[in-house]
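Ops channel
N.P.: pipeline sanity check, posting one input/output pair.
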């Protein structure tokens, strides 16, 4: 079997890591910097790599890169961005759909910001389609804790989302 190099890994996962970091930061430029830092760290610690699955290993590196960056800038709060561009050229398909998407993200972001940190991270990583075991590995918790946090986080999100919609309709 052919050995996969870091350049191949970068090409395969750079967009996933960038999208995850975009959801954690407000600044797309900062997400780009953190993405580069993640892959730089991956290169530095390549000797420590023990054959784990590459994708969760990279998400773990991205998570720790984000945490380190956040600690250095503790005075400034972080939020999820309103809309992540899915197309590299930023071309908008339908202005109405784009506006509705931005409004939905704004509302969801508000709810996510109110969740406990672990629940927020579990939901974001699950949204990135990581398995329970991979999320547990990234966050350094057990699989049962991932399942509980995901279940409780989703319940809280639904409740907050419903309350926010009710408030928006004047109820």
């Amino acid at each position: 079997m052919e050995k996969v190099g870091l350049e191949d890994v970068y090409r395969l996962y750079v967009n996933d890591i960038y999208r995850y970091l975009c959801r954690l930061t407000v600044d797309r430029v900062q997400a780009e910097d953190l993405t580069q830092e993640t892959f730089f760290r991956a290169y530095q610690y390549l000797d420590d790599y023990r054959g784990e699955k590459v994708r969760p290993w990279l998400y773990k590196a991205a998570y720790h890169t984000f945490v380190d960056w956040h600690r250095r800038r503790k005075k400034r709060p972080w939020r999820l961005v309103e809309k992540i561009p899915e197309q590299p050229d930023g071309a908008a398909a339908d202005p109405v759909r784009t506006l509705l998407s931005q409004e939905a993200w704004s509302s969801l972001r508000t709810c996510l910001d109110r969740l406990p940190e672990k629940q927020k991270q579990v939901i974001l990583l699950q949204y990135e389609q990581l398995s329970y075991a991979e999320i547990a590995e990234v966050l350094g918790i057990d699989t049962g804790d991932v399942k509980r946090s995901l279940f409780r986080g989703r319940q809280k999100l639904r409740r907050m989302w419903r309350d926010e919609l009710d408030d928006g309709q004047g109820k």
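N.P.: looks fine end to end. Residues 143-168 form the longest helix (26 residues).
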